[in-house]
Specification:
Length: about 70
């Protein structure tokens, strides 16, 4: 069984990312994340890999905000 504690962590990170791109639809957000993780089909993306990609995008957005 997968660790249920991963859910709020993933959702918090996803919320932060989605707020950075509020015009994206949820499916678009997941598809873009999957592509960034070099996965053709989002169905097969493991949570840890997706979380790593989300955190990378969030860190990049934070650094861009600091530059302005």
């Amino acid at each position: 069984m997968r660790d249920p504690n991963r859910i709020p962590i993933m959702l918090d990170e996803l919320k932060t990312l989605w707020e950075t791109h509020p015009d994206w639809r949820l499916g678009q957000l997941i598809a873009n994340l999957s592509r960034a993780a070099n996965i053709e089909d989002p169905f097969f993306v493991q949570d840890d890999r997706l979380l790593e990609t989300i955190r990378t995008w969030n860190a990049c957005a934070r650094s861009k905000r600091k530059e302005t």
